[in-house]
Amino acid sequence: MSELQDPSTIFARMRPNRTDMDSFNRLVDTAADHLEGHSDVSEVEAQLAIVDQDLGHLRLQFENGLRFQVRTPELETGVALAYNAFRNLAQQFEKLGRALQAQRPYDVARQLEVCNATVNQLFWAFADLRQHLAEEKYSEAPFIQEVVRVGKAYVSGRLAGELFLERFHAFCELHDQFIEGLQPLLAEVEGDPRHQQLLDALEEQNVVLDEIAGFLPSGDKAQVDAALGRLCHSSAVLLELQQEFLKEPDQTTGLLCFRCGHANQPGEKKCANCQARLMDVQTPGTDSSYNDASLPANLRKLTAAAEGFRDGALDREAFLEVLNWYDDLTEQALQQMSQLAPPPEEANGMPEEQLEAYDEAVEAMQQGLDALKSGVARLRLYSDKQDPVDLEVGLESCLGGHQYMLRFAAVNESLKAKT
Fold first, then answer.
1. CATH number at 3-135
2. Which numeric CATH code is attached to 297-418?
3. pTM for this entry
4. Helices and strands per DSSP (H, E), number in the chain
5. Domain extent listing, the chain
């Protein structure tokens, strides 16, 4: 076989140009395994279906994000490039499917190379769009930045009042969730001299939001513009205080409790809040394959505990305690699944596609929880036999469960947006 007809040369060219889309990268690896005779064509087709589904979710998120953007020439160019990439990928996947069915190895590899370049183009377009939107920066807090940018567009006449009103109401709901999320911090820092400053900044934001809501019916854009400026100021004060409080635990050598997150004093053996034994399982080692800041804290702590046990830094009893804690987390999530389904009176009036999305969200969450529980079970085997295969398979299974949870989150967010 000449080099021009050898699929392996194409895969070799693709390796340095991996995309930012994990499921597509797995598709490339699965196809390479298939062409080397290590897997069946059905596995490639199944992974292709996952990529197609992920792209559908990505496009939905993209379109929801565009809904309230103020259109500019730079934005229109980026949007056109992204849509062109989505369209090309749909056509290329059809050709890839035909090449798989016809068992043409070189065509499969060549089509994957074209798709790889197109996926990269899509994410480059996204990066350019993010950079363009970041240039109009009014606050360090992203959700404040968004509502102020859209508000400024309304004030300058570039955005219709009803669109700004709709976006403003959505922002107020998000702000309520933000304040609710701050309650643990407020309770923890009570008594600190800056505690009142934090409360004052939150109260100022609430007052400003009420004022904006009052100015909108009369169309008083000058007052709206002034209120947006005050919103930025209170946001800056709030963000500075929040960062100060969150940095303070790191100034000591005490450990954060792996179970409840409480910052303990140096030398403490048990958590002052929940009495769990303190152990250094905050993050994986620097040489860990799982040392990725994008992973959730609970998964990073599980990984750190597994690798700590492997390296002798953690005894078996402590490792099992972390596994029990992680099992409790997955069990709590399993119990919450019943809350995903819409009430019967709402379900009767929902479009079929929305009900299908609910089913998809439940399926993704169930698959994620199954993978997480399977991973923890494999790590328990590792605690007994210390077989490196059990460690690797257990952590990979937990990582796979996290990927399913990301898919659940994406579907869930799209449902919230539609609601």
1. 1.20.1440
2. 1.20.120
3. 0.40
4. 14, 0
5. 3-135, 142-251, 297-418
What is the chain's pLDDT, residue by residue, as a tens digit (419 residues)? 444 467 888 888 887 788 889 999 999 999 999 988 888 899 999 999 999 988 988 888 787 666 555 566 777 888 888 889 999 999 999 999 999 999 899 899 999 999 999 999 998 888 887 776 655 544 455 567 677 777 887 888 877 888 888 878 887 887 787 777 777 777 777 777 677 777 888 888 888 888 888 888 888 888 988 888 888 777 777 777 766 666 544 444 567 776 666 777 777 777 787 777 776 666 666 556 566 656 677 788 888 888 888 877 778 888 888 898 888 888 877 776 666 666 666 666 667 777 777 778 778 888 888 888 999 999 999 998 888 888 888 888 888 888 888 877 777 666 655 55
Nearest to 41 by CA among 87, 104, 85: 104
Q: Is the distance from CB of 409 to CB of 387 less than 8 angstroms?
A: no
Q: Name every residue whose Cβ is closer than 8 Å to that of residue 337 and which is 6 or more positions away in sequence.
A: 362, 365, 366, 369
3-class secondary structure per residue, 31-43: HHHHHCCCCCHHH
Contact yes or no for 115/93 (Cβ under 8 A): yes
Cβ within 8 Å of residue 221, ≥6 positions away:
154, 155
